[in-house]
Amino acid sequence: MAPQEDNAPTAPAGVDTDKPSAARIYDWYLGGTQNWAVDREFGRKAVQLWPGMKAMARQNRAFMNRVVEAALDAGIRQFIDLGSGVPTVGNVHEIIRRRVPDDEDATVVYVDYEPVAAAHSTLILERDEATDWAGIVQRDLRDPDGIFDDDTTCALIDFEEPVCVMLVAVMHFVGPDDSPGKVVETYRSHVAPGSWLAISHASTDDAPENDETAGVRKMIATYQNTSNPMWLRDRAEFTPWFGDWAMLEPGVSRLPDWRPTNEPQPDELEASSFGWGGVAEKPQP
Ligand SMILES: C[S@@+](CC[C@H](N)C(=O)[O-])C[C@H]1O[C@@H](n2cnc3c(N)ncnc32)[C@H](O)[C@@H]1O
Known about the structure:
There is one protein chain. The protein is α/β, with parallel strands linked by helices. The protein is built from 11 helices and 8 strands. It has helices spanning 22-29, 37-49, 53-73, 92-99, 115-127, 144-149, 151-156, 180-190, 211-222, 235-238, 266-271; strands spanning 78-82, 107-111, 134-137, 164-167, 196-202, 246-247, 253-254, 275-281. Strands 1, 2, 3, 4, 5, 6, 7 and 8 form an 8-stranded mixed β-sheet that branches. Helix 2 (37-49) runs antiparallel to helix 9 and helix 3 (53-73) runs parallel beside helix 4 (92-99). It binds S-adenosylmethionine (SAM).
C-alpha cells in the first residue's frame, strides 16, 4: 500500500523533521503514514540502492510476530520489545489480545527513543484500550538500567518470571563504541531463567560478492547521515550476544527460515541473505 504522504501528523515535541530517522524511514518501508518528506526521500534513495529493503523490513516484522507466537506457545506472558518502532500491523499487544484468553494475564513494554514512535505507540495503546497491560517507555536501550527502573516497566514486568526480550532490527543501530555485547549481556543477566532473547541483525557475511551486496553496503553507509547510523555485522559477531543461553531451533538463520508458518513470497527469499535472526532461552541455574 502506498503511503499517504500528506497524512503525517503534526510533529510531537522533540521530533527533528530536518533529519531522517530510522523509525520513520522503517514506517515508510512498511507502507505507514508516520513519516515526513525527509524520511521518504531517504527511503526512496535507500530502495534505489537496494530494492530488497522493503522486503527485509517485512521479514523482520514477520520474524518478530513468529517469535511472539512461539513464546506464547511456550508459556511466556511478558514481553519487552526494544526498538519497537512506529506501531504497524502485527504489534505484540495485538498478538497477545488475539492469543491469550481473557482470564489470563500477559503484558508488554515497548521501548523506543524516537518521539514519533513513542507518541504513536501511546495513541495506539489508548485506542486499543490496552494501557492496563501494555506500555511504552521512551528511552535509549543502551541504558538498560534506565529501562528496568522506569515506572512503566516496574508496573508491567515481574523480573522474577520469564520475559521475552526482543531486539528485532535494532542492534545494527548500536555502534561498536557503545559496547553492544555488554548492553545485551545486561538484559540477559537481569531476567529470570526460562526467559527468551530474540535478536535479528543486518549482515552480508553469507551473501555473494555481487552488485546486490554492494548496493546493500552502500545503502547501509547512507544511514551515517541520519539520526541512526547503522552497522553491518557478521553472524560471528552477534551470535555471542546470546551468551551461554540455549539456542532454540533452528538457531541463527535467515529470517524466513526461522520457524516459517507458510511458504515465503519470492521477494522475501530474494532479500533474505541480508537479515539473520535467532532466539535463545536462559537456562535454569
Ligand atoms: C528498524 S526499526 C525496527 C522496529 C521493530 N523492532 C520491527 O522490527 O518492526 C528500529 C527501531 O529502533 C529504534 N532505535 C534505534 N536505536 C535505539 C536505541 N538506542 N534505543 C531505543 N530505540 C532505538 C529506532 O527509533 C527504530 O524505531
